[in-house]
Amino acid sequence: QWPNECQLDQLNALEPSQIIKSEGGRIEVWDHHAPQLRCSGFAFERFVIEPQGLFLPTFLNAGKLTFVVHGRGLMGRVIPGCAETFMESPVFGEGQGQGQSQGFRDMHQKVEHLRCGDTIATPSGVAQWFYNNGNEPLILVAAADLASNQNQLDRNLRPFLIAGNNPQGQEWLQGRKQQKQNNIFNGFAPEILAQAFKINVETAQQLQNQQDNRGNIVKVNGPFGVIRPPLRRGEGGQQPHEIAN
Amino acid sequence: GLEETLCTMRCTENLDDPSDADVYKPSLGYISTLNSYNLPILRLLRLSALRGSIRKNAMVLPQWNVNANAALYVTNGKAHIQMVNDNGERVFDQEISSGQLLVVPQGFSVMKHAIGEQFEWIEFKTNENAQVNTLAGRTSVMRGLPLEVITNGYQISPEEAKRVKFSTIETTLTHSSPMSYGRPRA
Predict the structure, then answer these.
(1) Is A153 helix (H, G, I), strand (E, B) or coil?
(2) How far is B171 from chain A (nearest CA, A)?
(3) Tens digits of per-residue pLDDT, B106-141?
(4) How far is CA A59 from CA A123, A159, A235, in A?
(5) Residue A40's Cα: distance from chain center in Å?
(6) Which residues of chain A have a CB within 8 Å of the CB of B174?
(7) Chain B residues within an 8 Å CB radius of A161
(8) What was the ipTM of the complex prediction?
(9) CA B45/CA B177 separation, integer angstroms
Protein backbone atom coordinates (compact mmCIF):
# COMPACT_ATOMS: atom_id res chain seq x y z
CA GLN A 1 0.00 0.00 0.00
CA TRP A 2 2.94 2.32 0.65
CA PRO A 3 5.46 2.20 -2.19
CA ASN A 4 8.58 2.93 -0.11
CA GLU A 5 7.63 1.27 3.11
CA CYS A 6 10.68 -1.00 3.18
CA GLN A 7 13.44 1.57 2.58
CA LEU A 8 14.95 1.05 5.99
CA ASP A 9 18.16 2.95 6.69
CA GLN A 10 18.30 2.10 10.34
CA LEU A 11 16.53 -0.31 12.62
CA ASN A 12 15.93 0.16 16.31
CA ALA A 13 14.29 -1.69 19.17
CA LEU A 14 10.68 -0.75 19.72
CA GLU A 15 8.67 -0.15 22.84
CA PRO A 16 4.88 -0.09 23.09
CA SER A 17 3.35 3.21 22.10
CA GLN A 18 -0.04 2.88 23.77
CA ILE A 19 -1.14 1.25 26.99
CA ILE A 20 -4.81 0.49 27.35
CA LYS A 21 -5.67 0.03 31.00
CA SER A 22 -8.59 -2.05 32.16
CA GLU A 23 -9.97 -3.24 35.47
CA GLY A 24 -8.27 -6.63 35.20
CA GLY A 25 -5.08 -5.83 33.33
CA ARG A 26 -3.65 -3.89 30.42
CA ILE A 27 -2.96 -4.16 26.72
CA GLU A 28 0.24 -2.65 25.34
CA VAL A 29 0.21 -1.85 21.65
CA TRP A 30 3.24 -1.20 19.44
CA ASP A 31 2.88 1.44 16.78
CA HIS A 32 2.50 -0.58 13.62
CA HIS A 33 3.19 2.56 11.60
CA ALA A 34 6.81 2.37 12.74
CA PRO A 35 8.84 1.80 9.55
CA GLN A 36 10.10 -1.70 10.30
CA LEU A 37 6.70 -2.92 11.44
CA ARG A 38 4.99 -1.32 8.48
CA CYS A 39 7.47 -2.98 6.14
CA SER A 40 6.99 -6.41 7.68
CA GLY A 41 3.22 -6.07 7.92
CA PHE A 42 3.19 -7.05 11.59
CA ALA A 43 1.14 -5.53 14.36
CA PHE A 44 2.32 -6.42 17.84
CA GLU A 45 0.57 -6.41 21.20
CA ARG A 46 1.29 -7.51 24.75
CA PHE A 47 -1.49 -8.51 27.12
CA VAL A 48 -1.00 -8.45 30.86
CA ILE A 49 -3.97 -10.12 32.52
CA GLU A 50 -4.03 -10.01 36.32
CA PRO A 51 -5.19 -13.00 38.40
CA GLN A 52 -8.96 -13.47 37.99
CA GLY A 53 -8.77 -11.19 34.98
CA LEU A 54 -10.94 -12.04 31.97
CA PHE A 55 -9.99 -10.69 28.56
CA LEU A 56 -13.39 -10.37 26.93
CA PRO A 57 -14.15 -11.90 23.53
CA THR A 58 -12.56 -9.98 20.69
CA PHE A 59 -11.77 -10.72 17.07
CA LEU A 60 -9.29 -9.13 14.69
CA ASN A 61 -9.13 -8.30 11.01
CA ALA A 62 -6.01 -10.43 10.62
CA GLY A 63 -4.68 -13.83 11.56
CA LYS A 64 -2.36 -13.86 14.55
CA LEU A 65 -0.02 -15.98 16.61
CA THR A 66 -0.05 -15.57 20.38
CA PHE A 67 2.69 -16.77 22.71
CA VAL A 68 2.34 -17.30 26.45
CA VAL A 69 5.28 -15.52 28.07
CA HIS A 70 4.32 -15.93 31.71
CA GLY A 71 1.63 -17.40 33.89
CA ARG A 72 -1.18 -19.78 33.14
CA GLY A 73 -4.80 -19.49 32.23
CA LEU A 74 -7.70 -20.56 30.10
CA MET A 75 -8.45 -19.70 26.52
CA GLY A 76 -11.52 -20.07 24.37
CA ARG A 77 -12.01 -19.42 20.68
CA VAL A 78 -15.37 -19.37 18.96
CA ILE A 79 -14.99 -20.72 15.45
CA PRO A 80 -17.94 -20.14 13.13
CA GLY A 81 -19.95 -23.25 12.43
CA CYS A 82 -18.29 -25.40 15.06
CA ALA A 83 -20.44 -27.17 17.61
CA GLU A 84 -20.50 -26.63 21.35
CA THR A 85 -18.54 -29.74 22.24
CA PHE A 86 -17.91 -28.96 25.91
CA MET A 87 -21.06 -29.72 27.83
CA GLU A 88 -22.22 -31.11 31.10
CA SER A 89 -24.31 -34.24 30.91
CA PRO A 90 -27.96 -33.57 31.66
CA VAL A 91 -29.22 -34.98 34.92
CA PHE A 92 -31.74 -37.71 34.25
CA GLY A 93 -34.56 -38.93 36.43
CA GLU A 94 -35.76 -35.57 37.68
CA GLY A 95 -38.96 -35.64 35.75
CA GLN A 96 -39.43 -34.35 32.27
CA GLY A 97 -39.55 -30.67 31.43
CA GLN A 98 -38.70 -29.17 34.78
CA GLY A 99 -35.92 -31.64 35.39
CA GLN A 100 -34.46 -30.93 32.02
CA SER A 101 -34.07 -27.25 32.74
CA GLN A 102 -32.72 -27.88 36.24
CA GLY A 103 -30.26 -30.50 35.07
CA PHE A 104 -28.88 -28.51 32.18
CA ARG A 105 -26.15 -26.01 32.96
CA ASP A 106 -24.10 -24.98 29.99
CA MET A 107 -22.51 -25.99 26.72
CA HIS A 108 -19.91 -24.10 24.74
CA GLN A 109 -17.02 -24.48 22.36
CA LYS A 110 -13.62 -25.79 23.28
CA VAL A 111 -11.71 -24.30 26.22
CA GLU A 112 -7.98 -24.90 26.55
CA HIS A 113 -5.50 -24.57 29.38
CA LEU A 114 -2.57 -22.27 28.72
CA ARG A 115 0.89 -22.35 30.19
CA CYS A 116 4.27 -20.77 29.45
CA GLY A 117 5.49 -21.53 25.96
CA ASP A 118 2.10 -22.24 24.43
CA THR A 119 1.66 -20.72 20.98
CA ILE A 120 -1.84 -20.15 19.71
CA ALA A 121 -2.86 -19.59 16.10
CA THR A 122 -6.05 -17.61 15.58
CA PRO A 123 -7.52 -16.87 12.15
CA SER A 124 -9.06 -13.51 11.37
CA GLY A 125 -12.63 -13.00 12.52
CA VAL A 126 -12.48 -15.71 15.18
CA ALA A 127 -13.48 -14.43 18.62
CA GLN A 128 -11.09 -15.26 21.43
CA TRP A 129 -11.09 -14.81 25.20
CA PHE A 130 -8.53 -15.46 27.94
CA TYR A 131 -8.89 -15.95 31.67
CA ASN A 132 -6.10 -15.89 34.23
CA ASN A 133 -6.81 -18.63 36.76
CA GLY A 134 -3.34 -18.49 38.24
CA ASN A 135 -1.78 -16.46 41.03
CA GLU A 136 0.56 -14.45 38.81
CA PRO A 137 -0.08 -12.15 35.87
CA LEU A 138 -0.76 -13.96 32.61
CA ILE A 139 1.43 -12.30 29.97
CA LEU A 140 0.82 -12.93 26.30
CA VAL A 141 2.42 -11.43 23.21
CA ALA A 142 0.67 -11.53 19.87
CA ALA A 143 1.80 -10.79 16.33
CA ALA A 144 -0.91 -10.17 13.75
CA ASP A 145 -0.05 -10.38 10.06
CA LEU A 146 -1.73 -7.36 8.54
CA ALA A 147 -0.14 -8.01 5.16
CA SER A 148 -1.71 -11.44 4.56
CA ASN A 149 -4.79 -12.26 2.55
CA GLN A 150 -6.59 -12.92 5.84
CA ASN A 151 -6.73 -9.16 6.32
CA GLN A 152 -8.75 -7.55 3.58
CA LEU A 153 -9.01 -4.12 5.18
CA ASP A 154 -6.23 -1.56 5.34
CA ARG A 155 -3.01 -2.19 7.23
CA ASN A 156 -4.40 -1.19 10.57
CA LEU A 157 -4.96 -3.48 13.50
CA ARG A 158 -8.69 -3.42 14.14
CA PRO A 159 -9.93 -5.26 17.19
CA PHE A 160 -13.70 -5.81 17.17
CA LEU A 161 -14.98 -6.05 20.75
CA ILE A 162 -17.87 -8.43 21.38
CA ALA A 163 -18.06 -7.41 25.02
CA GLY A 164 -16.56 -4.64 27.12
CA ASN A 165 -15.14 -1.45 25.66
CA ASN A 166 -11.96 0.61 25.38
CA PRO A 167 -12.48 4.01 27.01
CA GLN A 168 -9.15 5.31 25.66
CA GLY A 169 -9.96 4.59 22.02
CA GLN A 170 -7.70 3.29 19.31
CA GLU A 171 -4.89 5.83 19.29
CA TRP A 172 -3.00 3.87 16.65
CA LEU A 173 -5.66 4.49 14.02
CA GLN A 174 -4.56 7.48 12.02
CA GLY A 175 -7.27 9.78 10.80
CA ARG A 176 -9.89 8.68 13.30
CA LYS A 177 -10.98 11.15 15.92
CA GLN A 178 -10.05 9.79 19.30
CA GLN A 179 -13.07 8.50 21.10
CA LYS A 180 -14.15 5.60 23.23
CA GLN A 181 -14.23 2.27 21.42
CA ASN A 182 -17.47 0.45 22.13
CA ASN A 183 -18.42 -3.16 21.61
CA ILE A 184 -20.21 -4.08 18.42
CA PHE A 185 -23.60 -4.53 20.12
CA ASN A 186 -23.46 -0.83 20.93
CA GLY A 187 -23.94 0.07 17.28
CA PHE A 188 -27.22 -1.82 16.90
CA ALA A 189 -30.54 -0.50 18.11
CA PRO A 190 -31.54 -2.29 21.35
CA GLU A 191 -34.86 -3.24 19.72
CA ILE A 192 -33.01 -5.15 17.01
CA LEU A 193 -30.86 -6.96 19.54
CA ALA A 194 -33.97 -7.83 21.55
CA GLN A 195 -35.55 -9.38 18.47
CA ALA A 196 -32.40 -11.16 17.33
CA PHE A 197 -31.75 -12.69 20.74
CA LYS A 198 -35.44 -12.96 21.73
CA ILE A 199 -34.74 -11.14 24.98
CA ASN A 200 -36.19 -8.00 26.53
CA VAL A 201 -34.88 -4.55 25.62
CA GLU A 202 -33.33 -4.00 29.07
CA THR A 203 -31.12 -7.06 28.70
CA ALA A 204 -30.29 -5.97 25.15
CA GLN A 205 -29.08 -2.64 26.56
CA GLN A 206 -26.91 -4.51 29.04
CA LEU A 207 -25.18 -6.21 26.10
CA GLN A 208 -24.06 -2.78 24.92
CA ASN A 209 -21.93 -2.15 28.03
CA GLN A 210 -22.72 1.56 27.86
CA GLN A 211 -22.55 2.16 31.62
CA ASP A 212 -19.51 -0.05 31.97
CA ASN A 213 -16.07 1.48 32.57
CA ARG A 214 -14.18 -1.72 33.25
CA GLY A 215 -12.51 -1.85 29.82
CA ASN A 216 -11.82 -5.00 27.87
CA ILE A 217 -10.17 -6.99 30.68
CA VAL A 218 -12.52 -7.36 33.62
CA LYS A 219 -12.08 -8.80 37.07
CA VAL A 220 -14.14 -11.90 37.82
CA ASN A 221 -15.64 -11.93 41.28
CA GLY A 222 -16.31 -15.42 42.53
CA PRO A 223 -15.67 -18.74 40.85
CA PHE A 224 -15.11 -19.07 37.11
CA GLY A 225 -16.47 -22.55 36.64
CA VAL A 226 -16.42 -23.04 32.89
CA ILE A 227 -16.53 -26.63 31.73
CA ARG A 228 -12.97 -27.60 30.94
CA PRO A 229 -10.79 -30.67 30.78
CA PRO A 230 -8.34 -31.59 33.54
CA LEU A 231 -4.81 -30.25 33.29
CA ARG A 232 -2.30 -32.02 31.10
CA ARG A 233 0.52 -33.95 32.71
CA GLY A 234 3.02 -31.61 34.31
CA GLU A 235 0.85 -28.53 34.09
CA GLY A 236 0.51 -26.56 37.27
CA GLY A 237 2.47 -29.15 39.21
CA GLN A 238 -0.41 -31.61 39.16
CA GLN A 239 -0.30 -35.15 37.90
CA PRO A 240 -3.38 -36.76 36.44
CA HIS A 241 -4.48 -40.11 37.80
CA GLU A 242 -2.87 -43.08 36.12
CA ILE A 243 -5.54 -45.11 34.41
CA ALA A 244 -4.82 -48.65 33.32
CA ASN A 245 -5.86 -49.78 29.90
CA GLY B 1 -12.51 -30.41 -8.28
CA LEU B 2 -9.15 -32.13 -8.92
CA GLU B 3 -10.43 -33.81 -12.06
CA GLU B 4 -11.25 -30.50 -13.65
CA THR B 5 -8.75 -28.73 -15.87
CA LEU B 6 -8.77 -25.13 -16.86
CA CYS B 7 -10.25 -26.01 -20.23
CA THR B 8 -13.11 -28.08 -18.89
CA MET B 9 -13.86 -26.21 -15.72
CA ARG B 10 -17.46 -25.64 -14.88
CA CYS B 11 -18.08 -21.91 -14.81
CA THR B 12 -21.78 -21.60 -14.12
CA GLU B 13 -24.02 -22.28 -11.17
CA ASN B 14 -27.59 -21.14 -10.62
CA LEU B 15 -28.30 -19.63 -7.22
CA ASP B 16 -31.99 -18.92 -7.66
CA ASP B 17 -33.27 -22.42 -7.09
CA PRO B 18 -34.58 -22.69 -3.55
CA SER B 19 -34.17 -26.46 -3.69
CA ASP B 20 -30.39 -25.89 -3.77
CA ALA B 21 -30.46 -23.40 -0.91
CA ASP B 22 -28.19 -23.74 2.11
CA VAL B 23 -30.78 -22.16 4.38
CA TYR B 24 -34.48 -22.50 3.52
CA LYS B 25 -37.46 -21.52 5.62
CA PRO B 26 -40.78 -21.46 3.75
CA SER B 27 -42.16 -18.53 5.68
CA LEU B 28 -38.92 -16.52 5.78
CA GLY B 29 -36.89 -17.14 2.63
CA TYR B 30 -33.66 -18.77 1.58
CA ILE B 31 -29.93 -18.17 1.33
CA SER B 32 -27.62 -19.92 -1.13
CA THR B 33 -23.86 -19.72 -1.22
CA LEU B 34 -21.43 -20.34 -4.03
CA ASN B 35 -17.81 -20.98 -3.17
CA SER B 36 -14.83 -22.96 -4.38
CA TYR B 37 -16.35 -26.19 -3.04
CA ASN B 38 -19.33 -26.11 -5.38
CA LEU B 39 -17.67 -24.14 -8.18
CA PRO B 40 -13.92 -24.91 -8.16
CA ILE B 41 -12.94 -22.17 -10.61
CA LEU B 42 -13.56 -19.73 -7.77
CA ARG B 43 -10.32 -20.97 -6.24
CA LEU B 44 -8.53 -19.24 -9.10
CA LEU B 45 -10.58 -16.09 -8.82
CA ARG B 46 -10.51 -16.01 -5.01
CA LEU B 47 -14.12 -14.90 -5.01
CA SER B 48 -17.41 -16.33 -3.80
CA ALA B 49 -21.05 -15.27 -3.79
CA LEU B 50 -24.17 -15.41 -1.67
CA ARG B 51 -27.73 -15.14 -2.90
CA GLY B 52 -30.46 -14.17 -0.46
CA SER B 53 -34.20 -13.86 -0.71
CA ILE B 54 -36.25 -13.05 2.36
CA ARG B 55 -39.90 -12.21 2.88
CA LYS B 56 -41.49 -9.30 4.67
CA ASN B 57 -40.48 -9.06 8.33
CA ALA B 58 -37.83 -11.71 8.05
CA MET B 59 -34.49 -10.81 9.55
CA VAL B 60 -31.01 -12.03 8.75
CA LEU B 61 -29.43 -12.34 12.18
CA PRO B 62 -26.52 -9.95 12.84
CA GLN B 63 -23.32 -11.40 11.37
CA TRP B 64 -19.89 -10.44 10.07
CA ASN B 65 -17.63 -11.65 7.29
CA VAL B 66 -14.72 -13.46 8.86
CA ASN B 67 -12.28 -13.41 5.95
CA ALA B 68 -13.71 -11.28 3.16
CA ASN B 69 -15.10 -7.96 2.08
CA ALA B 70 -18.47 -8.05 0.39
CA ALA B 71 -20.34 -6.02 -2.19
CA LEU B 72 -24.08 -6.32 -1.67
CA TYR B 73 -26.33 -5.49 -4.60
CA VAL B 74 -30.10 -5.38 -4.19
CA THR B 75 -31.89 -7.13 -7.03
CA ASN B 76 -35.45 -6.77 -5.76
CA GLY B 77 -37.40 -5.20 -2.92
CA LYS B 78 -36.12 -3.24 0.01
CA ALA B 79 -34.75 -3.78 3.48
CA HIS B 80 -33.55 -1.88 6.48
CA ILE B 81 -29.87 -2.53 7.11
CA GLN B 82 -27.78 -1.60 10.12
CA MET B 83 -24.01 -1.99 10.05
CA VAL B 84 -21.51 -1.51 12.89
CA ASN B 85 -17.77 -0.88 12.59
CA ASP B 86 -14.84 -1.89 14.77
CA ASN B 87 -15.38 1.13 17.01
CA GLY B 88 -18.91 0.03 17.88
CA GLU B 89 -20.38 2.85 15.79
CA ARG B 90 -23.40 2.47 13.57
CA VAL B 91 -21.99 3.32 10.15
CA PHE B 92 -25.04 2.45 8.09
CA ASP B 93 -28.68 2.69 9.15
CA GLN B 94 -30.90 3.05 6.14
CA GLU B 95 -33.37 1.46 3.86
CA ILE B 96 -31.76 0.01 0.77
CA SER B 97 -33.71 -0.86 -2.33
CA SER B 98 -33.49 -2.40 -5.76
CA GLY B 99 -30.48 -1.27 -7.82
CA GLN B 100 -28.42 -0.02 -4.87
CA LEU B 101 -25.00 -1.28 -3.85
CA LEU B 102 -23.59 -1.51 -0.34
CA VAL B 103 -20.05 -2.49 0.61
CA VAL B 104 -19.72 -4.59 3.74
CA PRO B 105 -16.10 -4.51 4.97
CA GLN B 106 -14.51 -7.47 6.69
CA GLY B 107 -15.50 -7.74 10.34
CA PHE B 108 -18.28 -5.16 10.20
CA SER B 109 -21.47 -6.57 11.74
CA VAL B 110 -24.57 -6.27 9.62
CA MET B 111 -28.28 -6.94 10.15
CA LYS B 112 -30.86 -7.07 7.36
CA HIS B 113 -34.60 -6.73 7.91
CA ALA B 114 -36.97 -7.02 4.95
CA ILE B 115 -39.57 -4.29 4.91
CA GLY B 116 -41.11 -4.81 1.49
CA GLU B 117 -42.96 -7.92 0.42
CA GLN B 118 -39.65 -9.46 -0.54
CA PHE B 119 -36.00 -8.53 -0.34
CA GLU B 120 -33.55 -10.17 -2.72
CA TRP B 121 -29.86 -9.52 -3.01
CA ILE B 122 -26.58 -10.88 -4.30
CA GLU B 123 -23.33 -10.56 -2.38
CA PHE B 124 -19.91 -10.93 -3.96
CA LYS B 125 -17.15 -11.77 -1.51
CA THR B 126 -13.41 -11.42 -1.85
CA ASN B 127 -12.50 -14.90 -0.67
CA GLU B 128 -13.09 -18.20 -2.43
CA ASN B 129 -14.39 -19.70 0.79
CA ALA B 130 -15.86 -16.74 2.63
CA GLN B 131 -17.14 -17.46 6.11
CA VAL B 132 -19.54 -15.60 8.34
CA ASN B 133 -19.93 -15.58 12.08
CA THR B 134 -23.26 -14.67 13.65
CA LEU B 135 -23.86 -12.74 16.85
CA ALA B 136 -27.15 -14.44 17.74
CA GLY B 137 -28.56 -17.88 17.09
CA ARG B 138 -27.74 -21.56 17.42
CA THR B 139 -24.34 -21.38 15.72
CA SER B 140 -23.43 -17.91 16.94
CA VAL B 141 -20.46 -16.60 18.83
CA MET B 142 -22.64 -16.15 21.92
CA ARG B 143 -23.60 -19.84 21.88
CA GLY B 144 -19.94 -20.75 21.82
CA LEU B 145 -19.07 -18.70 24.90
CA PRO B 146 -19.33 -20.13 28.41
CA LEU B 147 -22.07 -18.64 30.58
CA GLU B 148 -19.40 -17.30 32.94
CA VAL B 149 -17.88 -15.20 30.16
CA ILE B 150 -21.29 -13.74 29.30
CA THR B 151 -22.33 -13.01 32.89
CA ASN B 152 -19.01 -11.32 33.68
CA GLY B 153 -18.69 -9.56 30.36
CA TYR B 154 -22.11 -7.91 30.40
CA GLN B 155 -22.78 -7.90 34.14
CA ILE B 156 -26.00 -9.86 33.79
CA SER B 157 -27.47 -12.67 35.83
CA PRO B 158 -26.95 -16.33 34.87
CA GLU B 159 -30.64 -16.56 33.95
CA GLU B 160 -30.37 -13.58 31.61
CA ALA B 161 -27.18 -15.04 30.15
CA LYS B 162 -29.01 -18.29 29.45
CA ARG B 163 -31.71 -16.40 27.62
CA VAL B 164 -29.09 -14.52 25.59
CA LYS B 165 -27.42 -17.78 24.66
CA PHE B 166 -30.32 -20.09 24.03
CA SER B 167 -33.50 -18.16 23.19
CA THR B 168 -32.82 -17.93 19.46
CA ILE B 169 -32.65 -21.39 17.95
CA GLU B 170 -32.38 -20.31 14.33
CA THR B 171 -28.98 -19.99 12.69
CA THR B 172 -29.46 -17.36 9.99
CA LEU B 173 -33.04 -16.24 9.41
CA THR B 174 -35.63 -15.36 12.01
CA HIS B 175 -38.98 -13.61 12.29
CA SER B 176 -39.05 -10.03 13.42
CA SER B 177 -41.93 -7.69 13.92
CA PRO B 178 -42.08 -4.18 12.46
CA MET B 179 -40.12 -1.92 14.76
CA SER B 180 -38.58 1.44 15.21
CA TYR B 181 -34.83 1.25 15.08
CA GLY B 182 -33.83 4.02 17.40
CA ARG B 183 -31.65 6.96 16.55
CA PRO B 184 -28.30 6.46 14.89
CA ARG B 185 -25.53 6.52 17.43
CA ALA B 186 -22.81 9.12 17.04
Answers:
(1) coil
(2) 10
(3) 999 999 999 989 999 999 898 999 999 999 999 999
(4) 9, 6, 28
(5) 24
(6) 195-196
(7) 88
(8) 0.75
(9) 40
